[in-house]
Every structure is written in structure tokens, then in C-alpha cells.
DNA sequence: GCCCAGGTGGGTA
DNA sequence: TACCCACATGGG
């Protein structure tokens, strides 16, 4: 299993090159993006981030200066804007009251404590928590998303109905626990799925994983 | 017009 | 535990 996981990584890296993730300018921006991208295309998240930045600094203080309706309006392009505005405000409140307004305190080691605290926030589930831990906190934890499950079930390394923890364990039990490696691997999975696996008409001849792919479900967007 | 997108939480059985 | 559903905009 370890060899196959490493081989897939190598083929993806050789095809796509380094991805330089997460696409954000600060750890706090990673957190905001992680909440905004829930069940949402990243392109729409970028519209919301740009509007937030246009209105104020993309910092806890900067967002706190916006009224709730201003926050809702700014993030509207990312969808679920009422729900996500509520979640962002909950995060800001929690940062202020429990972590002295410092994201670095929320993301202080140990990993288990930081993850537990993140999961206690409204709107932060396992994927969002792990994305924040990895890309904002620098912890070696593997992020599992819809792309990860689709890709690795398609190549036959994972059951189609595997849950979050089971999927995460596949990677964390077989791969070296290194932040930069987990960072790059997850980013490459996303790129692979966007470019090949989820296309309505996949260009399988150019796909870097064509040697792993069974071809099943290839035209069903997942 | 229809389907989907880098999930989460609440309700029900 | 295992489903079902709401949440909402924008692009193909």
C-alpha cells in the first residue's frame, strides 16, 4: 500500500509540479477560506475573499469591524452566505474570548488539543479542521475531501463508502508524517481531480494516473 | 434549465 | 449508527 500511495504521489508531482498551497496570504486567510469553500467552488470563494479584502483588512480585527450584514453581503458569492457569516462571526467571537484574539493560540500545539478546539467551533467539521491544522497551523495531518475519496476509490485503494477517519488513516498509517509532504499530496489530489477526474469528458490519454485507473465511473463526474 | 461544487449540523428512525 | 435535508451562489 505504501508503495502505491508513494507512486501515485510521484506521478502527480512529476505531472503537475509543486502546487504551493494553500492559496492564501496568511494563516487567518486560510481559516476564512476553509470555511468559505465548504461545498463551494474555489473560484466563488476567491470572489468573496476579494470583496472582504476590498472592504477591510483580512484579519480578525478587520472582519470584526464589519457588521453582520456587511459580512453577509461580502461573502455572498461563495454561497450559503448566511450560514457562513454566522460561522465566521462565531470563530471571531471564540478567538477573542478564548484565545486573546490570537489565531496562533488556537493553533498552538499539541495537535490533538488544537483539533479538538477547532471541532468545537460551529461549522468546523473534520475536513475544515484538518485543512486549518495543516495549511494554517503547519501540523502533519492529512486532509480528506470529496476529491480524495473519489480519486482513491476510483483507483481501487479505498471503498466507495469509506468514511473520513478510515480514509485519513489510509494515508497517515502508510506515509511519513511530514507537513510539507501532506500539504503537497492533498494539493496534487485536488489538481488531479479538477483537471482530469471530474471533467465531463476526461482526457484520459493525458491523465498522469491512467495506469492506476479502472475507468469506472469516469464519465459520471465522480 | 439542470447539475455540481475542496461540508456541516440538525432531525429522524 | 445511518440516512435525509437545508444551506445558496455561480459556472459549465
CATH C-level label of the largest domain: Mainly Alpha
Q: What class, by secondary structure content? A: mainly alpha
Let me know the number of strands. Answer: 0
- Stated plainly, the CATH topology of the largest domain is called Endonuclease III, domain 1
- Summarize the main sheet: none
Helix content: 55-70%
Overall pLDDT confidence: 93
CATH superfamily of the largest domain: Hypothetical protein, domain 2
Strand content: under 5%
Number of helices: 12
Overall number of domains: 2
Form type: globular
Radius of gyration: 18 Å
Order of helices and strands: HHHHHHHHHHHH
- Any low-confidence stretches, pLDDT <50, length ≥5? 218-222
The CATH architecture category of the largest domain equals: Orthogonal Bundle
Distance between the termini: 23 Å
